[in-house]
Amino acid sequence: MTEQEIKFKEKIKAIQDTMYVIGGKWKIVIILSIYNGNKRFNDIVASIPKITNRVLSKELKHLEENLLISRKVIDEYPVRIEYTLTEYCLSIDELAGPMEKWGKNHMKKISGK
Amino acid sequence: MTEQEIKFKEKIKAIQDTMYVIGGKWKIVIILSIYNGNKRFNDIVASIPKITNRVLSKELKHLEENLLISRKVIDEYPVRIEYTLTEYCLSIDELAGPMEKWGKNHMKKISGK
């Protein structure tokens, strides 16, 4: 493989890794919801149109495994669980900002066809 | 709904629109392959590890519908079909660059656990 091909494959791998971690319809939106102050499961569900409990549970687990959120069990009666963003998660803004801008622009582009 | 909630819902919508258009494992990678000079179906397939013909066909159609690539039929014998990026598609670099950087960093973060 040429130097250029190796670089290209590395670029593909890095972008696919990013898509694996934050891709799909819900992950960044869940992060934004927690960033917006929604710490508890039901608050997060209520803040995101059309998300289901099953999907949110699965995505929260995925985000936790990828060190983007942390889950705290508060030993009260009843037990409370709170989700917060990790320090590391704030790096997502490098992506969320451009994505928001691009999405808004794309809708104008497509509707202006 | 408060002003803040409206803004939040708009942000969610814009990011979900972006994910719909360029999300998933293959779309940006296909764009990069065409950007790298692969114009014909078989060249694109060969350049992207593990992609299948069926998936590439579906994703090319999606990218064309979203004005990111154009498809030219060259009336020779046999007929040739070439894919090129639209001018508009270059705006993707606002996303591909940060995604590449974030992905590389994330792999170090996860492996350095």
List strands and helices in order, with pairings.
Two copies of one chain form a homodimer.
Chain A: H1 3-22, H2 27-35, H3 41-47, H4 53-65, E1 69-74, E2 80-85, H5 93-111
Antiparallel strand pairs in A: 1-2
Keywords (chains A, B): DNA-binding, Transcription, Transcription regulation
Protein name (chains A, B): Helix-turn-helix domain-containing protein
Domain HTH hxlR-type (chains A, B): 13-111
Structure write-up:
2 copies of one chain form a homodimer. With 113 residues, the first copy, chain A, is mainly α. Chain A has a single domain, classed as Winged helix-like DNA-binding domain superfamily/Winged helix DNA-binding domain (Arc Repressor Mutant, subunit A, Orthogonal Bundle). In chain A, 60% of the residues lie in helices and 11% in strands. The first copy, chain A, contains 5 helices and 2 strands, in the order H-H-H-H-E-E-H. A two-stranded antiparallel ribbon of chain A has the order 1-2. In chain A, a hairpin with a 5-residue loop joins strand 1 and strand 2. The longest helix of chain A is centred in the N-terminal third of the chain and has 20 residues, at 3-22. Chain A is globular and about 60 Å long. The mean pLDDT of chain A is 92. At the A-B interface, helix 1, helix 2 and helix 5 of A face helix 1, helix 2 and helix 5 of B.
